[in-house]
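Example 3.2
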Amino acid sequence: MGLDVRAGSHRDVDRCVDLWTRIIAARDGASVAPAARRSIEVAFTRPVVRFAVVGGHEPRAFALTLVKDGRIALLSRLCVDPTAASRGIGTALVTDAVDHARAAGFSRIDLDVRETNARAIALYGRAGFVAVSEPWTYDRGDLMVTLSLGLAGED
């Protein structure tokens, strides 16, 4: 399946923040707090390894990979519109993030995911990510787990 994964631009940021906000609000059954919205806006100001978007003027999905620490990348956000789920978009975005982090010379890529998000954990597992932490409590009380994929020495 040929998905058009493209580099995101500054013109995509607000639309991607809106997409993330709508999805989180639907998941949680409540509006997203201004502080939560601000946290994703701030994420876009951090050093970026790759900002990738699927979709044209109105993004259907995006991934934001940041510099975490030294030679470690962080897949900070992966967001797919639920109406576009199960079409390989998440897989394409994870592959894109891994490929760009590897090409940029990062030794590994980490991510944090809700412990209860079985679909996401399965997606990341298929890409080779493994749990490297015990569950920990996120600031809103969600239990999270950190997953990691080594990139050094891979083709």
